[in-house]
Write a structure and sequence with these properties.
alpha/beta; Rossmann fold; 11 helices; 16% strand; globular
Length: 339
């Protein structure tokens, strides 16, 4: 299939492009490089041994999006393009509502107009808020999100479901992912946070590299084994493969279907466990400090991923150690590149 990948130069998008090619599909990227870098395209070219078609455009522009989909005869869309920093969304909610919801509306309008049926939507475990029980399943009630970022994902899921309920002949899967970490084993693509990282692992690798003086752990008094948050950390390559499984599943579905899947490892790790594992597998010491809690953070969450295994035939292949080794290999590559 010819698949348009919105935000395809981003962290998860770029790894998904590789896995789509590996599975015999033809991905085409649209990315405005607001939160990604063009150097990613060079990394992709080296991995897949050919240039990747990329439009430097904003998918909030419905007219442009329609022209690209028509020109390229797009058969499916994987929609990543969204802002994703929890902290920034608390400070600047309108930016998040405008971009994350606007781009999703734009994608749906174009799909309906052009008769493109298959959509995989990048959702998040943040739709569960702070759940009453873990692990969460797809039937766990969604709760008010702890941040505007999380709320944009909840709202977008509702928009997708309502679009299907209205009888539109679309086939949609929303993937609720947990915490993607790591990098491609080749160290040719990985996470490229602009400015101060919003996620834990880039903060860890930048501290190990000496870019950051120390790592601040937000909160040490949570009701968890060591007082730090619990999250489900999944290797980005495993997550990318879930998108391929999802788009292939949609191809075999009837029109007018909507489904959601948790995509994670099925287990949780505390922030301190991540730090200690990183130190152990990469044989180094990190300078970290326990600090106060951060607004918008959920205490603990990890997911039950049996549904994805059973229905999509997808499962995690990489370990936490693999993820943290690959993340450090990628950081060292960046250090070398940046002198």
């Amino acid at each position: 299939m010819k698949i348009l990948v919105t935000g395809g130069a981003g962290f998860i998008g770029s790894h998904t492009v590789v896995e789509l090619v590996n599975a015999g599909h033809e991905p085409i990227i649209i990315d405005n490089f607001n939160n990604s870098e063009k150097s990613v395209l060079k990394g992709l070219r080296k991995i897949i041994k050919k240039p990747i078609k990329c439009y430097d455009k904003d998918c909030n522009d419905t007219k442009i999006l329609e022209q690209i989909c028509q020109k390229e005869n797009i058969e499916g869309i994987i929609h990543f393009a969204a802002y994703k920093a929890v902290g920034e969304s608390v400070e600047n909610p309108l930016k998040y509502y405008e971009n994350n919801i606007g781009s999703t509306l734009s994608v749906l309008k174009v799909m309906i107009k052009l008769g493109i049926k298959n959509l995989v939507f990048s959702s998040s475990c943040t739709v569960y808020g702070q759940p009453d029980q873990i692990p969460v399943t797809e039937d766990t009630p969604r709760k008010p999100a702890a941040s505007p970022y999380g709320n944009t994902k909840t709202i977008c899921e509702d928009i997708l479901r309502d679009t299907i309920t209205a009888g539109n002949p679309l086939k949609i899967i929303a993937l609720r992912y947990f915490n993607p970490i790591g990098a491609h084993p080749s160290a040719l693509i990985g996470e490229l946070p602009s400015g101060v990282p919003g996620n834990l692992v880039p903060f860890i690798t930048q501290t190990a590299a000496g870019i950051r003086q120390k790592l601040m752990v937000f909160g040490s008094d949570y009701n968890t084994p060591d007082g730090t948050n619990i999250r489900d950390f999944i290797h980005v390559v495993d997550l990318a493969k879930a998108h391929v499984s999802a788009i292939q599943l949609l191809d075999s579905k009837q029109d007018n279907t909507y489904d959601v899947f948790n995509i994670g490892t099925g287990t949780g790790n505390t922030v301190l466990e991540i730090i200690k594992t990183f130190e152990k597998v990469n044989k180094l010491k990190l300078n970290y400090e326990l600090g106060p809690r951060r607004a918008g953070d959920v205490e603990k969450i990890y997911g039950d991923v049996e549904k994805a295994s059973k229905i999509m035939g997808w499962k995690v292949e990489k370990t936490l150690a693999d993820s943290l080794k690959d993340a450090w290999r990628w950081e060292k590559k960046l250090m070398k590149k940046n002198g």
